[in-house]
Amino acid sequence: MMDLVKTLLRNKVVRYFFSAGTATVVDVSVYFTTYNYILRKTDIPFIGPFVLTAPMLSLVISYSCGLFTNFFITRAMVFTESNLRGRKQLFRFIQVALLVLFMNYLFMKFLVQVLEWYPTISRVVSALSIGVMSYLFHKHYSFKGKKQD
Fold first, then answer.
1. Which stretches of the chain score pLDDT less than 50?
2. What is the pTM (predicted TM-score) of this model?
3. Are 108 and 123 in contact (CB under 8 A)?
4. Residue 59 CA neighbour count, 13 Å, CB half
5. Is there a contact between 58 and 39 (Cβ–Cβ < 8 Å)?
């Protein structure tokens, strides 16, 4: 069993999905904790008539925690050969994350509203499809370094 795990962890794509899965667990855990225990399901008055709803504020906080978790694990375990500065990697990583979020939104909208697929099935298909594209974006953009002579 340990040999199988070692073999799988040698694969960069497996390590990438491991880091994404870990970040998702962090995201969901932080969301649950923030929404239920920190905000106590209470909206926050913002400016004038604007209100930060507890679900949306929890999402922003949890998504940020998941994003940084994903970045640091991906940087340390997956794309270790990149010679870009950390700030530049992080900036690019956030750009890709926002693009991926938007692509997920569009793909889900298409699957659910146009093809009339069940939302949970659509989410799985969307996550896996966009996950592969995300890996490629990070490999060829976020963590791509200058060629060494």
1. 148-149
2. 0.82
3. yes
4. 7
5. yes
